[in-house]
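User: quick one
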Amino acid sequence: MPLKLIPLIPLLPLLAALWIAIGYAFGGNRGEVGERQTSHLALFASGMSLLIILAVDVMALVDGTAPGQLLVGEWLAVGSFVLNISFTLDTLGLAMTTLVALIAFLTLRFSVNYMHREAGFQRFFMVMSLFSGAMLLIVSAGNAALMFIGWELAGVSSYLLIAYLFDRPTATASATRAFITNRVGDAAFILALFLTITWFGGVEWPDLLQGVTRLDGLGAGLLAGAFLIAALAKSAQFPFAPWIGRALEGPTPSSAIFYGSLMVHAGVYLLLRLAPLLEQVPALSPLIIIIGLLSTLYGWLGAQVQSDVKSSLIFATTAQVGLMFITIGLGWYEVAALHLMAHASWRALQFLSAPSILVQSEKPPRAVAAWLRRQRWLYHASLQRFWLDDVSDALLLRPTESLAREVEHFDSAVVNRVVGHVQSHSEIGTGRGVAGRAMEWLAIRLEWLEENLILRSGGEGLIGLISRIGSQAQAIEKLLERPRYLWLMIMATLVVII
Amino acid sequence: MDSLTLLLLSPFAGAILIALLPGDNRVLLRGVAIAASVIALLLSWMLLLSFDSGSAAIQLDVGVDWNRRLGTSFALGVDGISLPMVLLATLLSLIAVLASASITENAKGYYALLLTLESAMLGVFMAQDWVLFYVFWELTLIPLFFLINGWGGSGRQGAALNFVLYTMGGSVFMLLALLLVFDEVGSHSFAFADILAGAHGLPAETQLLIFLGFLIGFGVKMPLFPLHGWLPLAHVEAPSPVSILLSGVLLKMGSYGLLRATAMLPEAAMAMQGVLLALALIAIIYGGMLAWRQSDLKRMVAYSSVSHMGVVLLGIAALNVHGITGAVMQMVAHGLVAAALFLLIGLLYERTHTRDINDYSSLVRITPRFAFFTSLAFVAAIGMPGTAGFVAELHALIGGFERWGWLVIGVSLGVLISAAYAVRTLTRLFTGPVRQEMRGIRDLERGELMAASVLSLGILLLGFAPAPALQLMGASVAQLGHLFAGIGG
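Assistant: Done. Structure below.
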């Protein structure tokens, strides 16, 4: 029975998000009055998801084995390619789903009080529900495509929450930066999906993981590399790390659930899920270890010099996740999984209590370590977050900008002149640009044709012709009415008859 | 009484009842008119229950000898091509009655004429005898003349006269063609089936002569370039509910007749294929260009009808299964879209008393429902995927492509032009500053909202799930398509 309900686990929070959005659009749950209704709905959906997954857990414990791969139905079929709606609840998936459902539910409950009377309460709960659904989909999805949907939804909701205070320029700028950085990972994920579909014809996890054993070294390396980039971007590892430091603009509960405990681990989860693929490519392990090491150093050093609690927590998170990558690189998958669970729970608590940390702790915050203060250049580099943002700006942003400028110039100098620059309130029936003016020229000729040939001489002309004929007929009639002509006609008839 | 005769007579019975009622009780008159058209709608949709869409034959047919010496009979029946038209006609008639709330002057005459018009239109689509067909064809003219003449705009007299003269002129050619084919076939019967069977054996030159007569007769109604002179005037001057029927159903009578004529004279149709294609392309581009030049909203939609009926002609001209499917689909789709546009523009005109696009701006803030439904209708008119127009245009294009290859690129040009005027109009209507004098406009009210929703729902349903509609017309269209495949082309 609980197995039948498994699709509801990600679906319920998504539906709650939809319902809150619809309710808000129609004015049903706005204002402080609507807070109770909104939070109840979100909590109910999240709570139900939690209950269902707990029931599945209990069942798995009683049976002594996890449900494994579950096929719910076919979603779409294109030619020989079939995309299923399926869920993978093996021990890893089951544990992760339970963890996500639990932390999402608790954070939502925390937010009810935390967000009380905030402007945008409904919006916050809508996006949080959307995120819970997305995250649950990531960890329970039975195939890579379904996981990708959750992956994208999580990215979007992260964007929406970082820009929660959308009237602050820094918040919107950070949101955009975080989103764009994530898109790099998404592109890699799409590439991996494409490779999977081309090589294996399906994206179900079991198919994929069995298929990789047949791949040659290069193919497996390409596939694993693409998935690795996706994981690195999502988990904010080196060199994508800086976005997460800017992602704390949103309300604290959202930071907790997104960057402290859940979304940041999505990349680790992806790699754990793909463990057989990673084993196929031993050359990748040193790379993962090095990246993990760099991330850990980056996070650790960065955390030393932060002056606010949320920033130091997020740098610590990066460091911890870096450690998980190292353990994955070493092939200790169980260790990484355990580390993930423990870290997620602990970090969620830390983030949620961060706003009240001054109340709770009596000791003043620790100053920067003495050895780091002595290493001037290292201290500086840590403060500047190792210039990762500036490097990426110089390497990617500026060339893109200058290319865009050139394209814009081409557009205004050549394309617009040919196609015409659209202005909303121009004269009716006039065109701009070469094509527009040609159309106008032709249309004016056709209009002339219509007016003169068809309407005037066709329609009105027809009436005119008929009235002319009519008046002539009337004249003949009048002539005939005169007695002498009548007499003449009778005479003529008689003559003819005779 | 059998179901088709009942359907045919029910609006007419409503008209007679209205004629007998006192003329001063407008609510009662309107109630009777709505009831009669609802009954007709239900009767027509109930036909679906007994209609077998797997068969291409004429179904539910009745036949009573009318005049044995002339060989005429009172024969009714429907197949997969006429049934969609019957359903469309009853639906749009109800919408037209619903949209007539603002008619106050001599409502009795108005509703009686409207219901008579409905009966006559149904008769055209259900007739299975050419004389009966001709009688109903002419019968539509009488109520239409009086409706335009009595309740139209400022230039209504000229428009009504113009309309009748044009159509009568076309009818003369149709009648001549009918008499000629009757004479040539010599089976002494005007029944569709007999004439069809006989005409297939005629020599090609005779067929061509007869086909030309039909082409002119139906071409006026459809309308074909350059026989469309009546259309802009009549559409602009007619009261909006009548414009709905004119554009939504009356134009389809022309293309429906043309389909019947191609089935009767396949060799002539094959010979004329090039001419038909040329006429279709001209209509599509010419109508679109002129629509683009109009600032009067009704006039613009009227010209866009010319363009859209060009797509119907393109589908018919392709003379293959896809093309004819596209033609029939486009007849339904354009019926719904044009009806929605005329309905909304008519209601807007009642409120603002202007049809000039330049007088409108930023309606979305004052009347969001108007904005929504008008946008949907215009988007459907362009043939956006997800709307009925897309399915229709796609089929017609595929059919045309199968026949002529890249020549149909002209059609895409027409689509581009239609996008130009539709989007232009939308920008005009819904962006810019809020005008002071437009602040007080009422949004759609309940009855109007319902009428607009029904049409929009139809547009979207046919767009998202066209399968039932395609299946309904499938067998008959396939039979017609295979007829031409047999001739080889």
